[in-house]
Specification:
The two termini are 29 Å apart. This protein has 13 helices and 20 strands. It is globular and about 80 Å long. The protein is 34% helix and 23% strand. Helix 6 packs antiparallel against helix 12 and helix 9 (278-290) runs parallel beside helix 12. By secondary structure, it is α/β, with parallel strands linked by helices. Bound molecules: 6-O-phosphono-beta-D-glucopyranose (BG6).
């Protein structure tokens, strides 16, 4: 994706990886399986030490056993031969630390230095990657403590400390600005890697390569040919156990739309960068975010919040949101967001972008559908019947759909002649289907941190522009005036979201 791709190996020969929050779910479900896969495929050198850091008392051996179980369960390589695991686990260490108390960081630093001296030799300088898989209130204190505890590199070798931050990056514009300025006081922006795991998905990266690697589509992607664009990120699951507390202070707008969905919008709407490098790509994304305009002057008309109520799915009773664990029984938190927005620039003027995301919808699907305009004339048609109701149907608009997940694909829908002795039309699809077994997003993202490529990470100005756009909606939804519209589980969200398109004669695609 950038100049760094010339080499798939890390940019510096020696690294240490520290995972803060090593007892947590993210470490077992995503990070350790991804590191194991990278190591198995030769992207992580044999002598790279990985330190799990957390509050609980644990020996190295106990940690290794826990991680073996986690990687066998969640890794994508299946059964791990024992000798292979032992080889990987020999570089796995555990260090107990209270992240919010500065004292222990000096001890952690000495341990990392000693280990590096044993593995790499006495005078070899390694880069340290510190992954903050921890609660957001500890982001800043732990970076402060790292810097005070000896991890802060000299000014001319900032690359020797890279800090990876997991979302949420604040819960609104002001808290996000505060977090960014706190981090920027301690670290250079180039040392901060804010993860949006959507950008690590193979199919998401392909959006730019497909757009700018082909000459035939790009001339069509603008207001002259595109009627509208739909971005859907739907989930059939409700609130996973243990997440109710977090979700009820967050909601779908903060959890998913402000980050993943707006990132998808940026990729499909941005201009080609002058060169395909991280900062230039991110400059173009910022321009898109800064050009966003609400679909109407009235927030309730362009931003729809919904909440699911209980019902049955596949014959089984399913809780409504308010009955979920650790959710307030009178919660007004949205589990669905639908939006109509415009990208006010020369290319996209007057083309609506419809965004929707929600929990407990009929399917887990993420896709971007570009809906083109109809042909100017309809010389051909065909008779189609729905029961006894028959009518003439002309060409249908072409669409180009990037299916991010599942069944990853790119599909172009066209009208073609229906075989037979009449000039009848039918709709057919030209499709590229991705192979199975694509790399996990965290594999790519961790590898990029190691090789110092921040293309797929969110820069602070991108973050700020995204928060700035959603802030009026967040403010409005905090007031008593806002009540989310209820929707039944296993449906495509509240009625108002259907009307959002229906008002202009458009319809949501059924993915
Ligand atoms: C996370 C959200 O960022 O993305 C979750 O916090 C959501 O609520 C998840 O379920 C969806 O990710 P994916 O990769 O499964 O589509």
């Amino acid at each position: 994706m950038s100049a760094a791709d010339k080499s798939v190996l890390p940019d510096s020969p020696h690294h240490s990886i520290l995972i803060f929050g090593a007892s947590g779910d993210l470490t077992s479900r995503k990070l350790m399986p991804a590191l194991f896969t990278l190591w198995s495929e030769g992207f992580l050198l044999d002598d790279t030490p990985i330190f799990g850091v957390a509050r609980r008392e644990k020996t190295d051996d106990e940690f290794r056993h826990e991680m073996q179980a986690a990687v066998s369960r969640h890794g994508r390589l299946g059964e791990i031969p024992d000798d292979q695991w032992q080889k990987f686990a020999a570089r796995l260490f555990y260090h107990r630390l209270d992240l919010d108390t500065p004292d222990g960081y000096v001890g952690l630093h000495s341990r990392v230095e000693e280990t590096e001296a044993q593995l790499f030799g006495p005078d070899v300088a390694a880069s340290r990657v510190v992954y903050l898989a921890i609660t957001p209130s500890l982001f800043l204190p732990s970076v402060e403590n790292l810097c005070a505890g000896g991890f802060k590199p000299a000014h001319d070798e900032t690359h020797r400390l890279r800090v990876v931050v997991e979302k949420p990056f604040g819960r609104d514009l002001s808290s996000s600005l505060e977090l960014s300025s706190g981090l920027n006081r301690l670290l250079d922006e180039s040392q901060i890697y804010r993860i949006d795991h959507y950008l690590g998905k193979e199919t998401v990266q392909n959006i730019l390569l497909f757009r700018f690697g082909n000459a035939i589509f790009e001339p069509l992607l603008n207001r002259n040919h595109v009627d509208h664009i739909q971005i859907t990120m739907s989930e059939d699951q409700g609130i996973e156990s243990g997440r109710g507390g977090y979700y009820d202070t967050s909601g779908a707008l903060r959890d998913v739309l402000q980050n993943h969905v707006l990132q998808l919008l940026c990729l499909v709407a941005m201009e080609p960068p002058a060169v395909f490098l991280g900062d230039q790509i991110r400059d173009e994304k910022v321009k898109v975010l800064e050009s966003l305009r609400p679909g109407s002057d009235n927030i309730d008309e362009w931003a729809i919040g919904g909440q699911y109520v209980g019902g049955t799915v596949d014959g089984k009773a399913v809780n409504g949101y308010r009955q979920e664990d650790r959710v307030a029984p009178n919660s007004r938190r949205e589990t669905f967001v639908g939006m109509e927005v415009f990208v006010d620039n020369w290319r996209w003027a007057h083309v609506p972008f419809y965004l929707r995301t929600g929990k407990r919808l009929p399917a887990r699907v993420t896709e971007i559908a570009i809906q083109f305009k109809l042909p100017p004339l309809h010389p051909f048609s065909t008779v189609e019947c729905d029961g006894d109701d028959c009518g003439l149907v002309g060409s249908r608009p072409n669409s180009l759909v990037f299916r991010i997940q599942p069944e990853e694909s790119i599909t172009l829908s066209c009208s073609v002649k229906k075989p037979g002795h009449q000039y009848n039309l039918e709709r057919q699809r030209l499709q590229y289907q991705y192979p199975h077994g694509l790399a996990e997003a965290y594999e790519r993202l961790l590898l990029d941190v190691l090789r110092g490529d921040s293309t797929l990470f969110t820069r602070s100005d991108e973050l700020e522009a995204a928060w700035r756009f959603v802030q009026p909606v967040l403010d409005h939804w905090e007031t008593e005036k806002f009540q989310p519209e209820f929707y039944q589980v296993d449906t495509w969200g509240p009625q108002a979201a259907i009307t959002l398109l229906g008002n202009s004669g458009r319809e949501w695609r059924e993915p």
